[in-house]
Each structure stands twice: as C-alpha cells, then as structure tokens.
Amino acid sequence: MIRDSRPDDAPAIAAIWNPVIRDTTITFWPTERSVDEIAAIISHRQAANRAHLVALDDAGQVIGFASYDQFRGGLGYARSMEHTIQVARDFRGSGIGCALMGAIERHARARGHRVMIGAVTGTNAASIAFHARLGYSEWGRVPAAGWKFGEFHDLVLMGKDLFA
C-alpha cells in the first residue's frame, strides 16, 4: 500500500535513508537526517502541494518512500520537479520502487508539472538502469559534481517528460 507520509513516519524513513547517507555514494548528502528534519521535509513538501509518500508492507511497516520538489528555484522552473526515492534494502527489486515512482509521477502530472528529474551518482548502475526501465533518459552528466568519502563523483541527470 502507498499512502501520504505523515510526520510520525519520520523515524521509519530515517531508518531507511540514513544508512544510504552514511554508508554509500548513492547520495552526496554528507550527514544523516534527523527525525525532526525528515518530519519538516514531509510537512514542507505537502504544504507546497508536492508528494511525499510511503510504501507499507503487509504489517503496515514503512518499507520505502518517495518525494519530489521543484528542481531549481524560481518561476522559470515551476513545472520541473526532482525526485527522491529510497526502498528498504530487503525490499529492493520487489517492485516497490516502481510503484512509488508511478505514484509520484501521477501526482506531479495531475498538478501540471512537465518533467521529473532524478539526480543519480554516475557509478550507481542499478539506479541508472531503474530509471531507464521507467522511461527516463540521461539528460546530462556533470563530471566530479559530488564529493563524498574523499573522492569526486559524477552526477547523472535522468529525466522524463511526464506528458510525452
């Protein structure tokens, strides 16, 4: 089941997101997110009429989340969105990510947003393949854009026209 996130989902989201932040280059974010910070992100996105969703297993436990917000600031980018999606390790490859992505794309499309962008680490072959399977194309590569674990990493922008 997929539903709107609630601030009280923040601890479960942190349990999924923080190991990715702490242990991988999947995100360039340098520090773990606090429960309060995640709750604020949920509230901010929903107040801006952006989706912040969670996927639940049969026992009602959060096993993934997805969200989107404006790609860059300013009115010129008001219809261009960037997403974040993470699935708990034990549920990767189960279709949860595809379901979450479909849900945020439908949400964005219903609000007239034109493009959805994923910013992917250049060495994250699994994420690049995931996005490609869902109709995303590589729209740009920024060499050495991210810094983590003492190394520079390429950033790949994967994009999809929601109305194509």
From TrEMBL:
Residues 1-163 form the N-acetyltransferase domain. InterPro entries: Acyl_CoA_acyltransferase, GNAT_dom. The lineage of its organism: Bacteria, Pseudomonadati, Pseudomonadota, Alphaproteobacteria, Rhodobacterales. It comes from Paracoccus albicereus. Pfam families: Acetyltransf_1 (PF00583). The keyword Kinase does not apply. This is GNAT family N-acetyltransferase. PROSITE patterns: GNAT. Keywords: Acyltransferase, Transferase.
